[in-house]
Amino acid sequence: MTTYLTKIEDNKTHHFRVAVDNNGVRIIHGVFYKWLGKYFEGCGDNASAIIRQKQLVDEKIKEGFQITEFNETIENTVDVYDKAKWHFGGNFPKDLEDFHGYIHTGMFLGWLIDNDLVSDEFKNEHTEEIEKFKQQRLTGSQIFESCCDGVLMIEDISELGNRFALPYFDFNSGQYMGDYEKTLAKNLPSAYHVTDTWDNYAKLKQVVDKRFSDWKNQNYKKPIWKFW
Q: pLDDT tens, 167-205?
C-alpha cells in the first residue's frame, strides 16, 4: 500500500510517498521543480515495514503534510532527465564513438546554460566550464560528459527551467527529440549521427528558443488587472 502526502509551503509543493515493499519501505520525496530523492529503507520483516510506514506518515502529518490521493505525474516521479549510458548498446550505431550518446542531451544542457536556466548549485560548481561554453571553447555535450558524468538531473536545472523542461524534454510525450531529429538528423541514418558542432547547436537553439517563448506566453500570461 502506498501513502502519498503533500504540503504547500512558500508557494512550493513538497511531496512524500512511502510504500511497503516486502521487508522494507520505498520512499520518494522532494519539492516540485526543485529536487526529488528516492531510497529504500530496510526494516527486517514485513510487519516492521508496515509499522515504519505508519511512523513516517505520522511524522509528516506533524510537519503539516496532508494525505493526498496519488496520481503519478512527471513532477512527483522524475528525478533524472537522461543518462548517456541508457543509449549505449541496443540501437546505438556500432560505427559511432560513445560520445555521440551524449550529444542530444548535451545540446539541451547548452541551451539551458545559454538561457540561465541551470540551478545555482550547477553554476557554483561549474563556473569555469560555463564561461568556456559562453566563449565557445567547450560544448554543452562536453560539459554533459565531463561535469555531469552523462547524467542530467532536475537538481541541475532551475525551477523555471524544470517547469519548461519536464514536459518538453520527456522522451515519451515531449517535443524535444522530435525537434532535434527534424532540425539536425533529417538526412542522417539516426539521431545519434548528429555531430557536436556550434552550427548544429545554433540551428537547434532557434527551435528551442521558439518553444520556450511560446510556452512562457501560454503559461505566464499577465493578468488583465496588471495592465492598468
A: 999 999 999 999 999 999 999 999 999 999 999 999 999
CB atoms within 10 A of CB 31: 17
How far, in Å, CA of 24 to CA of 37, rounded? 17
For residue 157, give the H/E element and its range.
Answer: none
What digits encode the pLDDT tens for the residues 66-79?
A: 999 999 999 999 99
Task: Find the largest Cα–Cα distance for the chain.
Answer: 63
Q: Give the three cell numbers for residue 217.
A: 506566453
Annotated domain spans of the chain: 2-67, 80-219
Which DSSP string corresponds to 171-222?
TTT-SHHHHHHHHH-TTSSSGGG----HHHHHHHHHHHHHHHHHHHHHHSPP
DSSP letters, 22-42, are TTEEEEEEEETTTEEEEEEEE
DSSP label at 93?
Answer: -
191 touches 87 (CB < 8 A) = no
